[in-house]
């Protein structure tokens, strides 16, 4: 009758007598007559404290166990209400079932995040990364649950694609051609018809356009999958491979986008408050002392909705010098976003109605002729967490925008057909899942919320 450490914590009041656990030695300290092992078995962030005594035949050997050795413990569960841990296990027998080595890289001291990134295969064994990746898993489930509860259908859009959903050209090419012997056509250009798919293909930057087609059949849909961007951004919030959630709604406008995005973010936080209490408490204590307060505030307050034009005015009137000054028509920099969320509003805000030139071609033109019906959610610490918009559903306007953006009408023919056959008001948004995980864990570098991060110059493991 094997138990897990989690079982013991969950059913402490019902458990008495003999228990049996298998796990890894996290810490060990001993004197001549008594020793203590912190045992972790992966079932929870918390360890079980194992007490061993020199009465055990193999006591000497046990005191020399290297960190991360695998052991099986049989012992008596004893409640210790006055101690730091609610119980301990007084071992009657401890058997080593797997070895480790004294040069185990995770010795008992605080390691820097930079160092831990170089051992991405071992860092999930630390408390911090255990908490982060547990929350990552729970947050993914919470996203699915919230959207499914709101009648959204999950759609899997392709990872290899021949179109550029964002029209921004930041794509990783997918090819089976031999770079050293590229086939050339009559004009001396690479002959893509000889490639695997007989045309140029790339990794998807977004599932939005393909999922829009499903919104026009299922009404409310979403994607949740990996996306790839070959943007050479060396920042703490850009990854080359990241996961995105893209809800898309037929018969919806920009107001609906903001309501759904706000509801989803709050729904995820509420779920984590219910299901990730130990992990949040740990991160609040060791990583970001404002984490829980910030999440509670996010849950309690209504997010402000601020037109871009007003944001620019606020920034221009700011009593601080920005490295990059703001002019109407320019994209906001991270320092501007930080000022708005951390100095002015102290909470997540939706910035709406951006100049059309700095936003994607598919966004719906506003009547002013200058702006589009876009809404980005900016959050403290991170900046842009969500990008959304009402889509341009009017055939002629969309056709014109494809032209104005210098995109190929042929490539977007199928997309235009969505407007030709059943023109429908439609809107949606995309959440960067890693940025969401950063927000709900307090981690400040995107490399520390992805199991094996990919960033410019790094595809290790
Ligand atoms: O603002 P973006 O580029 O919007 C889209 O891709 C739309 N198709 C979404 C939609 O309307 N369906 O990206 C959406 C979000 C950003 O707000 C950000 O959180 C995240 O994706 N994101 C990144 N996250 C990590 N690394 C990167 N390089 C990211 N680029 C965007
Ligand atoms: Mg964006």
TrEMBL record:
InterPro entries: Aa-tRNA-synt_II, aa-tRNA-synth_II, aa-tRNA-synth_II/BPL/LPL, Asn-tRNA-ligase, Asp/Asn-tRNA-synth_IIb, NA-bd_OB-fold, NA-bd_OB_tRNA
Cellular component GO terms held in the UniProt record: cytoplasm
Keyword terms, alphabetized: Aminoacyl-tRNA synthetase, ATP-binding, Cytoplasm, Ligase, Nucleotide-binding, Protein biosynthesis
Location in the cell: Cytoplasm
EC number assigned by the record: 6.1.1.22
Positions of the Aminoacyl-transfer RNA synthetases class-II family profile domain: 133-451
The protein's name in its UniProt record: Asparagine--tRNA ligase
UniProt organism field: Lapidilactobacillus dextrinicus DSM 20335
């Amino acid at each position: 009758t094997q138990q897990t450490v989690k079982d013991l914590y969950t059913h402490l009041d019902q458990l008495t007598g003999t228990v049996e656990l298998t796990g890894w030695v996290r810490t060990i300290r001993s004197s001549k007559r008594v020793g203590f092992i912190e045992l972790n078995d992966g079932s929870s962030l918390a360890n079980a404290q194992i007490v061993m005594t020199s009465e055990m035949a193999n006591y000497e050997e046990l005191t020399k166990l290297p960190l991360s050795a695998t052991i099986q413990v049989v012992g008596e569960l004893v409640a210790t209400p006055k101690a730091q841990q609610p119980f301990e296990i007084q071992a009657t027998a401890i058997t080593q079932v797997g070895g480790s080595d004294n040069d185990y890289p995770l010795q008992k001291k605080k390691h820097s995040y930079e160092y831990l990134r170089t051992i991405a295969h071992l860092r999930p064994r630390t408390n911090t990364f255990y908490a982060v990746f547990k929350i990552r898993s729970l947050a993914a489930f919470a996203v699915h649950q919230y959207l499914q509860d709101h009648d959204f259908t999950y759609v899997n859009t392709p990872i290899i694609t021949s179109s550029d959903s964002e029209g921004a050209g930041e794509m990783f090419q997918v090819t089976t051609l031999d770079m050293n012997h590229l086939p050339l056509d009559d004009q001396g250009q690479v002959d893509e018809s000889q490639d695997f798919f007989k045309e140029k293909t790339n990794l998807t930057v977004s599932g939005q356009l393909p999922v829009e087609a499903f919104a026009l059949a299922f009404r409310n849909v979403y994607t949740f999958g990996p996306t790839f961007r070959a943007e050479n951004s060396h920042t703490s919030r850009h990854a080359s491979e990241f996961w995105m959630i893209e809800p898309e709604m037929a018969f919806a406008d920009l107001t609906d986008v903001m309501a759904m995005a706000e509801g989803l973010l709050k729904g995820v936080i509420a779920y984590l408050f219910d299901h990730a209490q130990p992990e949040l408490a740990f991160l609040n204590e060791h990583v970001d002392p404002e984490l829980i307060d910030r999440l509670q505030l996010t849950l309690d307050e209504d997010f402000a909705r601020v037109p871009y034009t007003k944001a620019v005015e606020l920034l221009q009137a700011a009593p601080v010098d920005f490295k990059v000054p703001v002019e109407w028509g320019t994209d906001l920099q991270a320092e501007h976003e930080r000022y708005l969320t951390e100095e002015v509003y102290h909470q997540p805000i939706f910035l709406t109605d951006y100049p059309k030139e700095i936003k994607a071609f598919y966004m719906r033109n506003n009547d002013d002729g200058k702006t589009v019906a876009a809404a980005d959610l900016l959050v403290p610490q991170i900046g842009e967490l969500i990008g959304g918009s009402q889509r341009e559903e009017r055939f002629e306007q969309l056709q014109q925008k494809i032209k104005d953006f210098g995109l190929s009408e042929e490539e977007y023919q199928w997309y235009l057909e969505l407007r030709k056959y059943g023109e429908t008001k439609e809107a949606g948004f995309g959440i960067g899942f890693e940025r969401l995980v950063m927000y709900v864990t307090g981690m400040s570098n995107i490399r520390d919320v992805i199991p094996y991060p990919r960033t410019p110059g790094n595809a290790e493991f």
